[in-house]
Design goal:
Number of domains: 1
Radius of gyration: 18 Å
Strand content: under 5%
Structural class: mainly alpha
Shape: globular
Number of helices: 7
Oligomer: single chain
Number of strands: 0
Order of helices and strands: HHHHHHH
Length: 163
């Protein structure tokens, strides 16, 4: 395999993009453009975070700017999803649910900065290591919800058809 392909696979393996790929594929095949847009935007933000993680860690040796960048990244995602939800480019219910899941992430990131540097405590360490992966998992689940709805609706329709 070429080196660029191997590094691409490593990036996907370290990112939530790999987990979102089946949803993106199914929404594209089903022409569900609202769910497709939501999943692609979410995957692009996850990929962006994966791509800048190592350089951001090298740049930020005082552990301040990485949390500000991650908080801004989450706020930017929320703003884009809210705008697209208002303009009917993504499902409004998915937009609202996604924002409710992610709203804790920027608060947690900024609390981490205050906890480490202003108060010189470590209260946020366990919260950060526990809640942030749960928020990311919740965001991925929100991406898959239209597919789950599609399958449950199909099963309900199959049960109501007389044999």
């Amino acid at each position: 395999m070429p080196d660029w392909f191997n590094s691409f696979i490593v990036i996907l393996g370290n990112s939530w993009v790999f987990i979102l790929s089946p949803a993106i594929f199914v929404f594209y095949i089903r022409n569900d453009w609202l769910a497709f847009r939501f999943s692609v935007i979410t995957a692009s933000f996850f990929l962006y975070g994966t791509l800048i993680h190592s350089s951001l860690s090298e740049f930020d040796d005082i552990f301040v700017w990485r949390y500000v960048v991650w908080a801004f990244n989450d706020i930017a995602w929320m703003a884009i999803i809210a705008y697209l939800g208002i303009k009917d480019k993504v499902y409004l219910w998915q937009s609202v649910l996604g924002q409710l899941v992610v709203v804790m992430a920027p608060i947690l990131q900024l609390f981490r900065v205050i906890d480490i540097h202003l108060w010189d405590l470590s209260y946020s360490t366990y919260m950060y290591k526990t809640l942030l992966p749960l928020i990311n998992i919740g965001t991925v689940v929100v991406c898959y919800l239209p597919m789950i709805y599609l399958f449950t609706r199909r099963n309900r329709l199959a049960e109501t058809i007389p044999k």
